[in-house]
Amino acid sequence: MKNNKLEHIKKSGFKTPKEYFNTLEDAVFTKLTSNKFPKKSGIKVPEGYFNSIEDNVLNKINLKNKETGFKIPDHYLETVEDNVLKNINKKQKDPKVINFTSIFLKKIIPIVAAASLLLFIFINYNQSSDVNLNQLASSEIEQWIDNDLITFDTYEITDVFEDIELEDEPIFEEEELLDYLNGTNIEELILEN
Question: Where are its TM segments located (predicted)?
Answer without folding.
Answer: 108-125
